[in-house]
Amino acid sequence: MKIAVLSGKGGTGKTLISVNMAAVLQKSVYIDCDVEEPNGHLFFKPVDVRSEKVSVKIPVADDNLCNGCRKCVDFCKYNALVYVNDRLMVFEDICHSCGGCVLLCPERALSERDKVIGEVRGGVSENVTIISGVLNTGEVSGTPIIKELISRISREERPVIIDCPPGSACIVMESIKDADYCILVAEPTLFGVHNLDMVCELVRLFEKPYGVIVNKCMDGENPAEEYCVKNGIRILGKIPYDEELGRLNSNGLIAAWVESKRYRELFKSLYQKVAGEVQA
Amino acid sequence: MKIAIPVEDKSIEGNICQSFGRSPYFLIYDTGSEESVFLNNTAAASQGGAGIKAAQIIVDSRAQAVLTPRAGEKAASVLAAADIKIYKTINDSIRDNIKAFTKGRLTLLDDIHPGFHRRRG
């Protein structure tokens, strides 16, 4: 079973929920798809970490073979190629590595080279296997790294928790593609509702079963809860605004692993609710 | 000498466009013959890389200078590769800027911006 945890903005508690859910299971895999700022490893402190580089293909022109026909320039809808002064110029960070230009070149003047954009790190911590994607600073798109992360769990038998990047752009779509269920984490504010609405639209587009966890709940108004009730969206649970939980989390501790059983029970029951939803 | 200017309309009496890559038209003006040609900027509707493609259009027009309020770094690098100089415009008027250019009163654009259209996802 693969469960993706996502939200429309950062700081709602995706990592808190992902890390703690993975931690309460007997055996599990935690995938950190927030490749621009992966931080799940700070909680798990995995050992036996192994890294593998992730690269993308970038076209290279052989100026001796290129006759300036510009078929590649006209083809590239990302405008990554220009032909100036009898030479092809390639804009690496605009290129989406589709390979179309190489296929199209009648002179076979284009080939591809690998460009490293980041890496995937795997390690273990107690009962959890941790796999994190890391995008190198300055790189534009983490999508190829997420593709690599998701390919690693295609045949995984253990429950997998996918900690998604914030938002609803391509990198999130790539992260939830293979998920059996999506947990949407929301804050109980009007701003939270706006962000929740965005990710609701996304998971509906992907036809994924989903439910909402409202985090940092206080007494009084709860616009996120009202939004769910109004739209008939399943609320999996509400996590109260809890200074102790916040303190543990900001000290890089896994609340479900500390002595008090309270948090362990909280995250276990949340997981069981999700598991029940998936089987239903 | 041919110069290129991003413009809002197909008229020399009109205004200069504030964007280079997303400008609807380019005026290619010949300072010798005083002839004007307006090119459609086919890059304007691009999802990304508009400045790059727009710069290719300028390169192909054989213009030797561009008069623009601003330009992104990728567009600037394409123009630089073709030895096309970029001059900063002084106001919105096409005529005023052509006049200033021919009198040698325009300065080179030095605040090249890093682009507004960061690719997402």
Q: What is the strand tally of chain A?
A: 11
Distance between the termini of chain A: 13 Å
Order of strands across the main sheet of chain B: 3-2-1-4-5
Work out the count of structural domains of chain A.
2
Structure, briefly:
The complex is a heterodimer of chains A (280) and B (121). Chain A has helices at residues 14-24, 40-44, 71-75, 100-104, 143-151, 170-176, 190-205, 223-230, 243-250, 261-279; strands at 2-6, 28-32, 47-61, 81-84, 87-90, 110-125, 128-135, 160-163, 181-186, 210-217, 235-240. Chain A has 280 residues and is of the alpha/beta class.
List keywords for this structure.
heterodimer; A: about 280 residues; alpha/beta; Alpha-Beta Plaits; 2 domains; about 35% helix; B: about 120 residues; Nucleotidyltransferase, domain 5; five-stranded mixed beta sheet; 3 helices; about 20% strand
What does this entry look like structurally?
The complex is a heterodimer of chains A (280) and B (121). Chain A has 280 residues and is an alpha/beta fold. Chain A has two domains: 215 residues, P-loop containing nucleotide triphosphate hydrolases (Rossmann fold), CATH 3.40.50.300; 46 residues, Alpha-Beta Plaits. Helices cover 33% and strands 29% of the residues of chain A. A nine-stranded mixed beta sheet of chain A has the order 3-6-7-2-8-1-9-10-11, sandwiched between helices. In chain A, strands 4-5 form a two-stranded antiparallel ribbon. In chain A, a hairpin with a 2-residue loop joins strand 6 and strand 7. The two termini of chain A are 13 Å apart. The relative contact order of chain A is 0.20. With 121 residues, chain B is α/β, with parallel strands linked by helices. Chain B has one domain: Nucleotidyltransferase, domain 5, CATH 3.30.420.130. Chain B is built from three helices and five strands, in the order E-E-E-H-E-H-E-H. A five-stranded mixed beta sheet of chain B has the order 3-2-1-4-5, sandwiched between helices. The longest helix of chain B has 11 residues. Chain B is globular. The mean pLDDT of chain B is 93. Chains A and B meet through strand 4 and helix 6 of A and helix 1 and helix 2 of B.
